[in-house]
Amino acid sequence: MTRIGVVTFPGSLDDIDAARAVRVAGADPVPLWHGDHDLRGVDAIVLPGGFSYGDYLRCGAIARFAPVMAEVIQAAGRGMPVLGICNGFQVLCESHLLPGALIRNDHRRFVCRDQRLRVENATTAWTSSYAVGDELVVPLKNGEGGYVADAATLDRLEAEHRVVVRYLGGNPNGSMRDIAGVSNESGNIVGLMPHPEHAVESLCGPGTDGLGFFSSVLQGILTRA
Model-level pTM? Predict the structure, then answer.
């Protein structure tokens, strides 16, 4: 069975939810601890939401130096799929695996709501189950979710189709160009601020629109096997 690692940092909140989403998609979730030096043979990695190390200094700034991140960075460089959700997105930016940064919401308030998104790139390891233009509804919860980058970086992301998802129905945090998620150049690394792991079952949450992120990477791994 495909093994997808879910990293837990001190302060992670959504690691259990991410592991459940992996299981619902049909893969085997493998717990990885922030102090690990071994990825335990996983095929992909999820960095979940929360407040790693209490979000001291900047969100994700300390987690970037966790022992497990040295392994994640090397594996990502070799092409392993890596998904960062909310705080995980912040960790990926702090690790320079993704461009830009996440700053305090422009309205200076924590936001928690079901958020509409539009899929802008369906070719990444984590979005191939969708089509460009698909509209999703997944939960969003953040206080420092405003995506920022300099104009040249933003233009490059747009030109290279590396904006993965974009906010619809109002920008919840002041993210530049309504960007909700981006990818690296090869598409194996994706970070997004909304929480697809909270939208994988119809019993709870706004529906199952988030499941495609996890089924995408599973299908891609199985196709390559």
Answer: 0.97
